[in-house]
Amino acid sequence: MKAIVNISLKAGVLDSQGKAVHHALDSLHFSGVDDVRVGKQIILKLDTNDKTVAMADVTKMCEELLANTVIEDYEIELV
Amino acid sequence: MQKSTTKVTILQFPGTNCEYDTQHAFEGLGATTEIVWHKSESIPSDTNLLVVAGGFSYGDYLRSGAIAKFSPVMKAVSEYANNGGKVLGICNGFQVLTEAGLLPGALKRNDGLHFISKHHYLKVHNNDNIFLEKLDNGDVINIPIAHHDGNYFIDSEGLKDLYDNNQVLLTYTDEEGNAKNPNGSVDSIAGICNKQKNVFGLMPHPERAMETILGSDDGIKMLQGFLAE
Fold first, then answer.
1. Which of A21, A44, A46, A48 is 20 to 30 A from residue B119's alpha carbon, by CA?
2. How far is B180 from chain A (nearest CA, A)?
């Protein structure tokens, strides 16, 4: 199975890139955007099909390496 | 220059680019130095100061300092620091030390999103530590900065801890010492130390401020703090 990990800055941590993209959208006259957050997506191909095992493993990966939990949140989706 | 008995060990990761400047700076002050490749599983036993030099370890992939923290040498660095050994992280070295959990907080992308490379004034906040003991609180010094991810972040609880324990070492200011924030850092913080005051991290480059002909020699007093008389 695959794990899709979405990493973004925590709420309350200023996202400068999101802000810059928001400004750029404004200058292109896309007026309906309230907020922009820029994150990153990491796709892992796993050799297990056991969701519980996969979730436990990927959570550990996020905590140890993929995300810096001082400033970032992560979400894991298994497909 | 008076000869010192201090041994400075400087770490080198793939992508480190300030190790030779750092070596030159400390040798100019009379220290003995050794550059240690990141694959080494130990650090020289006679080390008096361990420097994690600046640069772009592992190309800043994933996050600045994130991959370097898993290099073989980092286990020895943690042990050395936890046993009270003195560790100094400059620029990327500061990022590595926060990623490794040896210093609190994290370094984010600069608020302006630009790489900033220029001289900047800094104010000394706490000199009751070996790093800044040759300076006075309130001193304004001129040191180059060169970073893309220098935006120091720590949550409000962590920030209170830093102040309570005199761990805020340096802040970005103008020439008169008024706060001037180049990168969005919380409270304009440029450098901190750990609670035990043996692990130090800063984004500015004192090793690039060793000669007036190159713009400033204010780095001398900082690095001298680590040298045995």
1. A21
2. 18
Average pLDDT rounded to a whole number, residues B15-36: 97
Residue A42 lies in domain? 2-78
Residue type at B210 in one-letter notation: M
Burial B25-50 (b: 16+ CB within 10 A, else e): bbeebebbbebbebeeeebeeebbbb
Residues B182 and B147: beta-carbon distance below 8 Å: no
Contact A68 B106 (CB under 8 A): yes
Give the C-alpha separation, B44 to B95, whole Å.
Answer: 23
- CATH number for A40: 3.30.1280.10
Using alpha carbons, select from B175, B186, B46, B198 the residue that is nearest to residue B120. Answer: B175
Quick one: fold of B7-224?
Rossmann fold (3.40.50)
Model pLDDT for residues A28-55, shown as the tens digit of each residue: 999 899 999 999 999 999 999 999 999 9
Q: Is B63 on the interface with A (CB under 8 A)?
A: yes
Strand pairing category for B7-12 and B32-37:
parallel
Q: What is the pLDDT of residues B129-164, one digit of tens each?
A: 999 999 999 999 999 999 999 999 999 999 999 999
Q: How many domains does chain A have?
A: 1
* Closest-CA distance of chain B to residue A19, Å: 9
Q: Which of B18, B91, B99, B193 is catalytic?
A: B91
- Residue ranges per domain, chain B? 7-224
CA distance B223 to B216: 14
Alpha-carbon torsion A5, A11, A15, A20, what sign? positive
What's chain B's Rg over C-alpha atoms? 16
